[in-house]
Amino acid sequence: MGEYYHVTSKAHKTRLIFETDQDFIAGVNELALCILKFNVTVLAFCLMSNHFHFILKGHGKECMAFINEYKRMLSFRIYNNRRETGILRNVEIHMDELTDMEYLMNAIAYVLRNPVAARVNMMPYYYRWSSIGTYFRGALSDPGDKLNDLSLRKRVAIVKSRRDIPDGYRTDMYGMILPSCFVNYSEVESIYRYPSVFLAFLAKKVETEFEVRTGIAEMITYNDVELTAMINRLVNAEFGVKDTSQLSSEDRMRLCRLVRRNFGASVKQIARILRVPHEVVLSIV
């Protein structure tokens, strides 16, 4: 099957990596340039305000080198634009190998569903900062300006580099390199085979199962509303009941440990949401 990896950064708790549309555009362009330096294929990506996700194909060391270079490029731009240092220095990177086809299909769907899980108020196909719009387009082709047809001054203004650019790279009207230029969408289409299968995976609520299996749940910060929804799904899966009100005292204690382990929630947040005394949660987690 080859070597496939889901790579994600831990959500930054105090700073936004991407604050403005221009930050997101630059982040996509940096990804398009970074991929040129490594023997790595991008199958899917999603940039969120305080973290990012990639599905990569390549050798593990090469994929990690790629992600470290991408972090370096982000850090360099953030320093130049905001004079902020160290934002990404200690951001943890989690890389999980996707060892079977269903795991891979769920992982791609998980990455592309991120705006939905984060409750961004739009359909995922309208989220500009991911690769979701590149798949199953049939004969449709992306319009846009061919980067190499632009003057050197305009090209450097867009990509912030004088390096050679592939002839196939095009940009939209805002100066963002189109994801279809550097994402291997044809391989993703061959993985799912049919648009109906792809849409079925996108419609699945894969977050709880995938995050627990990969161990990245603890890297993600949830607000109370989000965590409550995740807990209710966990309660249904683990205990076979609708919500926490139907749990026995013993099961509620076990749930505290599960929430701590699976979602990395703080003792205060667990106590608040599950209505268990703080000292009791502290003693069992």
Spatial sequence of strands, sheet with the most strands: 2-3-1-4
Form type: globular
Rg for CA atoms: 21 Å
Q: Provide the structure class.
A: alpha+beta
Measured as a percent range, the helix fraction is 40-55%
CATH architecture annotation of the largest domain? 2-Layer Sandwich
Number of domains: 2
Strand content: 5-15%
Under CATH, the topology of the largest domain is which? Alpha-Beta Plaits
Helical segment count: 12
CATH superfamily of the largest domain: Transposase IS200-like
The main β sheet shows up as: 4 strands, antiparallel
Unreliable spans:
none
The overall pLDDT, averaged over residues, is 85
Order of helices and strands: EHEEHEHHEHEHHHHHHH
Report the count of strand segments: 6
Describe the structure.
This protein is of the alpha+beta class. It is built from twelve helices and six strands. A four-stranded antiparallel sheet has the order 2-3-1-4, sandwiched between helices. A two-stranded antiparallel sheet has the order 5-6. A hairpin with a 4-residue loop joins strand 2 and strand 3. Helix 9 packs across helix 10, helix 10 packs across helix 11 and helix 11 packs across helix 12. The radius of gyration is 21 Å and the shape is globular. 35% of the residues are buried.
